[in-house]
Amino acid sequence: MTTYLVTGGAGFIGSNFIHFMFGKYGDDIRIINLDALTYAGNPENLKSVEGRSNYTFIHGDITDRESVSEIFKDNDIDIVVHFAAESHVDRSIKNPEIFVRTNVLGTAVMLNCAKEAWENEDGSFKAGKKFLHVSTDEVYGSLPDDPDAYFYETTPYQPHSPYSASKASSDMLVKAYMDTYGFPANITNCSNNYGPYQFPEKLIPLMIHNALQGKDLPVYGDGLNVRDWLYVEDHAKAIDLVINEGRLFETYNVGGHNEKKNIDIIHIILDTLREELPIDDPRRNNVTENLITYVTDRKGHDRRYAIAPDKIHKDLGWLPDTKFENGIRTTIKWYLEHEDWVENVTSGEYLKYYSSMYDNR
Ligand code: NAD
Ligand code: TYD
User: Fold this and answer.
1) 223: how many CB neighbours lie within 10 A of its CB?
2) What is the pLDDT, as a whole number, of residue 335?
3) Banded pLDDT at 354 (limits 50, 70, 90)
């Protein structure tokens, strides 16, 4: 039986990945989820898997070398899927240091503990082991508004935000481990994800949440920045494929030719919310274009991200399954059906965060 150590499994993509893996492999795999439960980690995301005998949750920090080392000593880990990170660009602009600590130091600790556990005496590595480092396309910097310009695996790194700089650094550490020790790893650099369980600080869930409350929809700058949106389950499928079929030491870009301007996303959310809210729901009256409010631009705001997924398509046969029209509707319905989840994550600290980010913007 393959044993996975998933870091950051209580976050947005990590929890979707765990649901996907149990849905696909059932009792044939074991998953250990190591998560520090920061503001972004929510055990509620995994309530439905908690009773499984092949699932273990460990509340711990990836920068805590001793605890991580213990996990490798106590368990014969086959695959590490490394999601744990600080992940929000705006927070990184306000407080970069925690990004360096979690994303860079945390990745170094994970790599070192895996290396210690997996290395044979002669410096080779035990068969069947792999470290899958989950990263972002933001490491490549920003593309011009030229429809023929894309990020490829060979695009030079040019991160701009403290978030992307810390992720770029973590990628470089993984590359250094592969080059120096022959450490068995893959890196995936994925575009923007959307779907259930995403914390309402990122564009899509924040706009859904604000629109339902009749609050302003804060559009940074001219609203014409472009992101390449991927439904989170398609990301989970790509990671599973790279774990099982990806050639060791390779990087794979993951994204789905789904470029959208921010302002267009907001119009789609408003239209879909109006369609999905029951006719007698008083909030329908709130959901109008009048909520759109242009605010001061994000510092160093990257203009455009776009992935050409040629390599993962050609080598591994991956393409996204979910069309944006369907994925966004599923996502909006999920948020409408899980208002208690939203309520829990947006009380207390969230309100303080919101006012520190958006008041006086
Ligand atoms: P998220 O912020 O929703 O979740 C991060 C998780 O990591 C949380 O559960 C949090 O508690 C945990 N965590 C944070 N610090 C930790 C620590 N020190 N020790 C242990 N756990 C810790 O993030 P996400 O959006 O799910 O992103 C997951 C990964 O995917 C990140 O590495 C991110 O860079 C990458 N990624 C995200 C996107 C996206 O669109 N969200 C796109 C490409 C790549
Ligand atoms: P975000 O979801 O933070 O992802 P990232 O910056 O990592 O791509 O933001 C997506 C886009 O939406 C980005 O161009 C910034 C913009 N944005 C807004 O216009 N308003 C907002 O309130 C937020 C959170 C983002």
Assistant:
1) 17
2) 98
3) confident
